[in-house]
Amino acid sequence: MSEPLLAILDNGVLWWGLAACGVAQLSKLVIELVVHRRWNPRVLVETGGMPSSHSALLTGTTAALGWVEGFGGPLFGLAAVLCFVVLYDASGVRRAAGLTAARVNAMVQVEIGELEIDSANPRQHEKPLKENLGHTRLEVLIGSLIGPLVALPGLVLAGSPLHLAQALGWLAPIG
């Protein structure tokens, strides 16, 4: 196996951050089933909704990075600052963009409704703007909690995917 691939497989911070994101995305499917009583696998790839997988990804990765590199180091500081920017953006700017899209869609619906059905009018067939872009503060908060709750125990108990594969006997110990 090549050295760069081994390094990536040995990066527990990366993989447990991604695992936290995956858990958040999968929980959207469960919430869709329980709350709305419908099977909608599209929520696995859509933005927005409860919980914020972006928040889980960033807080999980940041917490794992702090655990490995130290919470007092500059790398953790950089990760934490970037994490705060993404969390703020998710509940602020992206949410505002989604609310704006909803208003634009409503205006277009009214305008089209006032027009007579005209196959020559291309605006009648426009797709509406995507409205579910950002998150509420609660969605960001829950995602932010999922991140460290998945990443830290995973990192501490299982280590990296490389260590896990070696422990399970899937790969021979290297070095």
Please give a structural write-up.
There is one protein chain. This protein has 175 residues and is mostly helical. 67% of the residues lie in helices and 0% in strands. The chain contains 7 helices and no strands. The chain has helices at residues 3-9, 12-36, 53-69, 74-91, 93-114, 137-157, 161-167. Helix 2 packs across helix 6 (137-157), helix 3 (53-69) packs parallel to helix 6 (137-157) and helix 4 runs parallel beside helix 5 (93-114). The relative contact order is 0.19. The mean pLDDT is 83.
Provide a quick synopsis of the model.
Helix content is 67%, strand content 0%. The protein is mainly α and 175 residues long. Helix 2 runs antiparallel to helix 3.
Residue ranges: pLDDT <50 for 5 or more in a row? none
Strand content: under 5%
Query: What's the overall average pLDDT, rounded?
Result: 83
Instruction: Compute the CA-based radius of gyration.
Output: 21 Å
Largest sheet: none
Distance between the ends: 12 Å
Count of helical regions: 7
Which of globular, elongated, flat, extended, rod-shaped describes the shape? globular
| Helix share, percent | 55-70%
Output the helix-strand order: HHHHHHH
| Helix/strand class | mainly alpha
Regarding quaternary structure, how should these chains be classified?
single chain
Give the total of beta strands. Answer: 0
